[in-house]
Amino acid sequence: MQTALADFVRDTPQGREANEILRSCVHCGFCLPACPTYQLLGDELDSPRGRIYLMKQLLEGEPVTARTQLHLDRCLTCRACESACPSGVRYGRLLDIGRALTEERVPRPPGARALRYLLHKIVPWPGRARALLALARAARGLLPAALRARVPAAAVPRPALLQGRAPRWPAARHARRVVLLEGCVQGALAADINPATAQLLDCIGISAVRAAGCGCCGMLDHHLSEHAAALAAARRNVDALWRHVEAGAEAIVLTASACASMVADYGHLLRADPAYAARAARISALTRDISQLLAAETNGLEAALQARAGAAPPARVAFHAPCSLQHALQVRGVVESILTGAGFTLTAVSDGQRCCGSAGTYSILQPQLSAELLRSKVQALEADRPELIATANIGCLAHLRSGTALPVCHWVELIAARLADG
Ligand code: SF4
Ligand code: SF4
Predict the structure, then answer these.
(1) Alpha-carbon distance 287 to 264, whole Å?
(2) Rounded to 5 degrees, what are φ and ψ at 353?
(3) Nearest 5°: CA angle at 97, between 330 and 327?
(4) CB–CB of 176/250 below 8 Å?
(5) Residues 254-273 pLDDT 10s
């Protein structure tokens, strides 16, 4: 694609990066069928190629309007278009740049500004998120139906295999150590996932230590185009994680694939900061979603599972692969083979590359599109009659729970439960 970037951006780092990305797009349109918003709305401006044109116009200095902002807002940042693109266009990075520039030029109405401000001030902070959740649950009956559906229930159905379990974080006893970054909202919504992961790792000879001093990975602020806040979170976490790296942690492990993709990006996000660039790059290189870590530990995992063979009845599981896992981290088929290796039967799920509509704050900021995507995702997951749904990211997990009566859990809880049954 030919470009002629405007003076205001041409010689900036963002301008140079955006220019390179724009030039890599050859307009072929192979990304269109992969795009959930194009599938739903049928408008080229709600497709990757259409949004790339809109961002090109913005970067070339043409007027940018609320309509541009609307089409960029409707993007889920699912990055399915990147998986489908034969030219390797880094659409997600271009969108970050395009959204930030649009945000500077198009003022939002007061209500939308207030909502985004509240999300930015509350969701990434565990104490505030817990307080808001408790308040919303208490006031559930008074909320409008659309908002009520967004409040996670306090008691959720648990898969039979997990009932009566309360995993405990084991004491560190192995020479091999990893640091487990626990995240922000996950503790409030599904507190068992990280202790179950620590137990699982303990069974295969790896101790997981808590990432003291860390907080939200910055992804939620990143989604809201609050880039300064996202970078501040990244710097705080690099400082805290670096102490663990120096103490010998061999990897930084996350159980939320969206957060893993964010931390894996710290090296890129902080590359221009001389005080952080080298450490951030090292942190990113050491970052693993739990599926990536276990994929490299198949011998230990198989041996541990064999020692407990037949301990629990295998279940029929529908696995939802989060976009952050399959498109951002490019991890495909790994969780599925770990689950089948542990005796679970995977049910057929059509359109498995399609987003569930959770997408960070998308379910709150774009409720109608999000609800439509949730409906079709739940339909696809339930079609082959699973006993439960498993996924790999807390946002997807909470979102799916709001759309199905089936139990929804993190897949790692199922493996940990199989191992604990020995
Ligand atoms: S598939 Fe890639 S190169 Fe083709 S239009 Fe989409 S982004 Fe551009
Ligand atoms: S990130 Fe997802 S929603 Fe956005 S343009 Fe790409 S495929 Fe479409």
Answers:
(1) 6
(2) -85, 0
(3) 10
(4) yes
(5) 999 999 999 999 999 999 99
- DSSP state letters, 363-388: HHHSHHHHHHHHHHHHHHHHTT--SE
Q: Taking a C-beta distance cutoff of 8 angstroms, is the pair 270, 277 a contact?
A: yes
Ligand 1: nearest atom to the Cα of 88: 2
Q: Is the CB of 50 under 6 A from ligand 1?
A: no
Q: Is the pLDDT of residue 422 over 60?
A: no
Are 293 and 250 in contact, with CB atoms under 8 Å apart?
no
Q: Which atom of ligand 2 is nearest to the CA of 74?
A: 3
Q: pLDDT category, 66, cuts 50, 70, 90?
A: very high
Atom of ligand 2 nearest to the CA of 80: 7
With a Cβ cut-off of 6 Å, ligand 2 is lined by 34-37, 48, 51, 75-81, 91
CA dihedral for 270, 271, 275, 279, sign (positive or negative): positive
- 56-to-30, 61, 71, 309 alpha-carbon distances in Å: 19, 9, 14, 57
Residue 225 sits at φ, ψ, to 5 deg, of 60, 25
Distance from the CA of 396 to the center of ligand 2, in angstroms? 17
d(CA 301, CA 295): 9
CA-to-CA distance for 161 and 317, rounded, in angstroms? 12
Task: Tell me how crowded residue 277 is: count the other CB atoms within 10 A of its CB.
Answer: 17
Quote the CA–CA distance of 310 and 418 in Å, as a whole number.
Answer: 9
Contact 87 CB / ligand 1 (< 6 Å): yes
Pairing of strands 207-210, 177-180: parallel
Q: Which token pair is 42?
A: 């049928």
Report the length, in residues, of the chain: 422
Query: Which residues neighbour 393 within 8 Å (Cβ) at sequence distance 6 or greater?
Result: 256, 257, 258, 322, 324, 325, 358
How confident is the model over 316-359, as pLDDT tens digits? 999 999 999 999 999 999 999 999 999 999 999 999 999 999 99
Q: List CB contacts of 391: < 8 A, sequence separation 6 or more.
A: 319, 320, 321, 322, 397, 400, 408, 410, 411
Cβ neighbours of 49 (radius 10 Å): 22
* String of DSSP letters for 84-122: H-TT---HHHHHHHHHHHHHHHSPPPHHHHHHHHHHHHH
Tokens representing residue 312 in the block: 């629990």
Distance 107 CA to ligand 1 centre (A): 30
